[in-house]
């Protein structure tokens, strides 16, 4: 259902790897709503070639960038302004990676060099993006910047290891830079805290299926799918949410404010009946 909510708006979408990616769905929805945008991802991810399909579908140029490298980000922002023909109205940061999770290190045995890499890729890259956008004066007034987060920033989820700290930093950057860009340019900066979602990054976390199911049973509305996250991002990029800024917005079907649900009570009751039998 398209409503032309983003007609005439120009954007940059970071992090579409394949059809499962949340950024992929956001790109498709932004296209439907009339936006033009540049797609960006790490050179390594580009080699998989999937992004070319999305680029064709959305008529969106691609500019490769390692989001930890400021010079790469400078090229993305200046290239986007040039290729799209004006300043940028919206940016999506949909980037996350932990070498510790990739290599199966538990929380008690983290490699600290990798920990720093996790923070650089998954959190500091957001600061670098906002910094480059500010220095280049690349954002339009009343623009909107969104990064994707997860509730492990507030609550302990052991298998999420150092990504929990990365998300806490990410959310804090959204507040600090939101304050700065609000004053300077009337630009809003928010994070969306999304339900567990079956993507490449999601599936990399050990025990993912269990906490996907747990969140599904806990949330009154069920887990929010990637498509719904894309709808929410569109609303945040649109002019309908111009005074929402410096927030961590829960997009989780009610998970974060549920204590216990009937589904969990039933599951535990059944499991304990089974163990007593
Ligand atoms: N999948 C979930 O359960 C879930 C839940 C909440 C939040 N999120 C967040 O959503 C965002 C998108 O993840 P996703 O689930 O769509 O998975 P995904 O694997 O499709 O996306 C992660 C992206 O990060 C990119 N990336 C990694 N290192 C990079 C670098 N150095 N420079 C540029 N890009 C780099 C990858 O190429 C990939 O496109 C992440 O921030 C993730 O933490 C995911």
TrEMBL record:
Protein residues bound to NAD(+): 15, 21-22, 95, 167
Pfam family, one: adh_short_C2
The EC number(s) this enzyme carries: 1.3.1.9
Annotated signal peptide: none
Record-level Gene Ontology MF annotations: enoyl-[acyl-carrier-protein] reductase (NADH) activity
Pathway assigned to this chain's UniProt record: Lipid metabolism; fatty acid biosynthesis
Reactions this protein catalyses: a 2,3-saturated acyl-[ACP] + NAD(+) = a (2E)-enoyl-[ACP] + NADH + H(+)
Superkingdom, natural source: Bacteria
Any one GO biological process: fatty acid biosynthetic process
Classification via PANTHER family: ENOYL-[ACYL-CARRIER-PROTEIN] REDUCTASE, ENOYL-[ACYL-CARRIER-PROTEIN] REDUCTASE [NADH], CHLOROPLASTIC
Family per similarity comment: Belongs to the short-chain dehydrogenases/reductases (SDR) family. FabI subfamily.
Protein name: Enoyl-[acyl-carrier-protein] reductase [NADH]
């Amino acid at each position: 259902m398209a409503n032309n909510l983003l007609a005439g708006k120009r954007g940059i979408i970071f992090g579409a790897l394949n059809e499962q990616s949340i950024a992929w769905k956001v790109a498709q929805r932004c296209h439907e709503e009339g936006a033009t945008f540049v797609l960006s991802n790490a050179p390594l991810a580009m080699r998989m070639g999937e992004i070319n399909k999305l680029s064709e579908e959305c008529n969106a140029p691609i500019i490769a960038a390692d989001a930890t490298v400021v010079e790469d980000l400078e090229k993305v922002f200046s290239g986007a302004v040039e290729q799209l023909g004006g300043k940028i109205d919206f940016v999506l940061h949909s980037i996350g990676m932990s070498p510790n999770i990739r290599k199966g290190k538990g929380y008690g045995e983290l490699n600290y060099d990798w920990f720093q890499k996790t923070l650089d890729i998954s959190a500091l890259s957001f600061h670098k993006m906002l910094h480059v956008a500010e220095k280049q004066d690349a954002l339009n007034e009343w623009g909107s910047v969104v990064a994707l987060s997860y509730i492990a920033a507030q609550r302990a989820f052991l298998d999420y290891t150092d990504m929990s700290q990365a998300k806490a930093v990410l959310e804090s950057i959204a507040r600090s830079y939101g304050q700065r860009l609000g004053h300077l340019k009337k630009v809003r900066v928010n994070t969306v805290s999304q339900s567990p979602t079956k993507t490449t990054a999601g599936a990399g976390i050990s025990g993912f299926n269990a906490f996907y199911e747990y969140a599904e049973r806990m949330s009154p509305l069920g887990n929010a799918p990637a498509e719904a996250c894309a709808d929410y991002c569109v609303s945040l990029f649109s002019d309908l949410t111009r005074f929402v800024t410096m927030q961590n917005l829960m997009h989780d079907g009610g998970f974060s404010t549920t204590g216990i649900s009937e589904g969990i009570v039933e599951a535990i009751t059944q499991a304990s009946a089974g163990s007593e039998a």
